[in-house]
Write a structure and sequence with these properties.
Blueprint: H1 17-29, H2 31-40, H3 49-52, H4 59-73, E1 77-84, E2 92-98
Helix pairs in contact: 1-4
């Protein structure tokens, strides 16, 4: 399964474009796991831990990834709140559930 072609939101000047690309590629690489976690009601950003480990340390990129995941999941999922994570820089993340209609 792959995210939609243009799932990335516009990026402001305050984000490093190399890190934005890391976020994009991580979402593409881990999209099956992202969807699985979303279906389970868990924060799907947790799927990115293996991709970000040792690469992304700033909280702003975790929040950006969380936002991008919501866009990548699209209309098939709806936002239902936040849940706890084990991510030091992002202790609460968005949670979704399937939107069946």
């Amino acid at each position: 399964m792959k995210p939609p072609e243009n799932f990335m939101p516009q990026v402001g000047n305050f984000l490093d474009l190399d890190n934005v690309e890391v976020v994009k590629q991580a979402i593409i690489n881990r999209f099956d796991e992202i969807v699985r976690l979303a279906q389970l009601g868990e924060p799907p950003v947790m799927a990115l831990i293996p991709e970000f480990d040792g690469v992304i340390y700033e909280a702003i990129y975790w929040r950006f990834a969380d936002r991008c995941i919501g866009a990548a999941l699209g209309d098939g999922f709806e936002y239902v709140g936040t849940g706890k994570t084990s991510i030091v820089f992002h202790p609460r993340a968005n949670v979704f559930r399937p939107n069946w209609g």
